[in-house]
Amino acid sequence: MRPCTLPTGSKSSGVPAARHGFQPRDLRDFAALTRGRSMTAAHLLRSTASDPQPARARGIKDRSLFDAMPNGFALHEMIWDAAGRALDYRFLYVNPAFERMTGLRAEAVLGKTAREVWPQLGQTWIESCGRVASTGDPTHGRRHSATLGRDFEVIAYRTQQGQFACLFTDVTESTKLAAVLAEDQRRFQEVLDNVPDLVWSKDLDSRFISANEAFGLACGRKNEEIIGKSDLDLWPQDLAEHYRADDLEVITQGKRKQVVEALVESDGRR
Q1: How many Cα atoms within 13 Å fall on the side-chain side of residue 241?
Q2: Residue 126, CB half-sphere, CA atoms under 13 Å: how many?
Q3: How far apart are CA 148 and CA 72, in angstroms?
């Protein structure tokens, strides 16, 4: 016997991730824009002894986009060994957001290599950047900086042969929030699993977003085999359609409904 069906307040179980600046779907348009300017940018943004960032004065037409963006941005030149292996990369340009996020001033990094700036930088990241610079295939992911104690979402893409740019956003606070939410979800699941009655919740498409152990035992499935599934995936069609009708009534009316429903046990008995 299934207990009453209650309306739920959201369409999905997860908390939608906030957009932090550029996302992978933005990369194609942004890379096309910067690639079209790469020759000018690479020429103007190289450091010199007299002016570590000379484009600040004479390259403002190319620099304005990068200087104004809230995302950190850095242009690099790859350094290879005689065998063509990625050894390091050199800073050619960093924007003001890079300085704010890292605490490093442009004059302290321009012309230097990444390992001069961050001696503990891992070879895995260097090799990943080397693949971007050599193949032109962009990469996207999250990286934790032990030196800065921050988490960053990073997009790296090639601007021209042997050079690449990194566009990054500080996601430290959202990473911490995600960890807190994950721990809350774990504790909530522990409470559900200690309830002897069948407990579950669904989104507005009647797909399961949570279920307790008692419910899993009733349908003979583990929790991870239930989440994201519909009644049609778990029960015979006649019962599934009946459950869906009850769900729709609760959704449309927004009121609690107590019903007595047939249930197929894990051994096939109703």
Answers
A1: 3
A2: 20
A3: 14
Place of tokens 């012309």: 111
Judge if pTM exceeds 0.70. Answer: no
**CB 256, CB 250: distance < 8 Å:** yes
Per-residue pLDDT band for 50 (boundaries 50, 70, 90) equals very low
> How confident is the model over 12-34, as pLDDT tens digits?
333 333 333 444 444 444 444 44
CB atoms under 10 Å from CB of 253, counted, come to 10
- DSSP letters of 11-77? S-SSPPPPP-S--HHHHHHHHHHHHHTHHHHHHHT---SS-SSTHHHH-HHHHHHHHH-SSEEEEEE
pLDDT of residue 79: 96
**pLDDT > 60? residue 266:** no
Contacts of 12 (CB under 8 A, 6+ apart): 203, 209
CB 143 within 8 Å of CB 129: no
Rounded Cα gap, residues 56 and 41, in angstroms? 11
Looking at residue 92, the DSSP 8-state letter turns out to be: E
Query: Quick one: three-class SS letters along 127-163?
Result: HHHHHHHHHCCCEEEEEEECCCCEEEEEEEEEEECCE
Position with higher pLDDT, 56 vs 146: 146
**Would you give the end-to-end CA distance of the chain in angstroms?**
9
User: Phi then psi for 4, rounded to 5 degrees?
Assistant: -65, 155
